[in-house]
User: What shape does this take?
Amino acid sequence: MPRLSFALTAALSAAAGVLLLLLAIAAVVAYDQLAPQRAPADAPPSPLEATLAIAAVAPEHPAESEPDPAPVTFDTTGTYTFPIAGDPARWIWTHLHWDGTHAADIEAHPALSYPDFVDATNSTLVAVTGGVLVDYSGSVGGQGYMLHGDDGLDYYYAHMAEQWLPDGARVAPGQPLGIVGNTGNTAQFIEPHLHLAIGPRDSLWAQQPGINAAEWIQSHFGLPWDERPSHAVPFDTPHGPPVVHPDVAILTPFEEATTAGLAEPAIELGFTAAPPGDQDIIAPLSGTINVIRWTVHYGTRIQITNDAAQITAVISGVDGWLVTDGEAVQAGQVIGRWNPASRPRLHYMIFENGAIIDPTPSLGLSRAT
Assistant: This one.
């Protein structure tokens, strides 16, 4: 009996303990049901909480790591792509480069509005085919790549604003490479564009491209080049100022511009008194037009080239243009508009045989005092 009583007592005590434990757990659960819901401080967050937390504190990715969402244009085989993401109709190029070689300057279409122009000239460049990238940046072509294609050809991309991949990177067709730009000495004063040259392996380092880029684009994508008419403009040289007004004067003479370090040494024209209203820009010589829109340094510029004389007059700071690329104009023809109230200085240069010369003798204007 004593042993049984002891066992019974022990069993009753254990049962009581279990009952108390169950009551405690129930109380905790009831409290938890009624109390505001929150996870313990050391509990891992839910996937949604983790995503929101990262979005709240993570910095934005830099532009160079963001692939362009614009679609890529492939050829029918999927082996080749148009070199710029987005609609190819936003771009134009000629059969030959301006210097007569087989490279192509792929430029924003002249019909684009300013917002569309800005959007286009910030487009992503993509690999035209699979291959290996070689960094080919320099003072002339600016930032760029040489793509050693798996097809045995080299594809040179010049004037890029950004490069996203390291030297030696392996790329697939259509893979983003960087951003369209105008880096390099030969392009810093003109519109952002892609200079594309194509040639046999290792031929582009020391010679002109052996394959016509415009014909290559046409053969793979069926896209035509811009056929600009040729004009037999008679020999002519600049004479008279690009703005005819009794109060226009030379505000920055050539010597001062050269020593003061203007981005391009040339004279600057303007008014010493209160500026008048909009002024006509006239062609100081007969030649062929090239319009360069909305550049960083001097706004829109209009170039007039007389091939027979190997002379180009460049008028920068224009507010509007009344001519198109490739159009032939006569000396004295109105080609644009200038608002001196909003842009007080008109930048004027003359290139002769590729070198900048002092345009002052051709102007017949006095220097502002």
In short: The chain has a mean pLDDT of 84. The two ends are 131 Å apart (CA to CA).
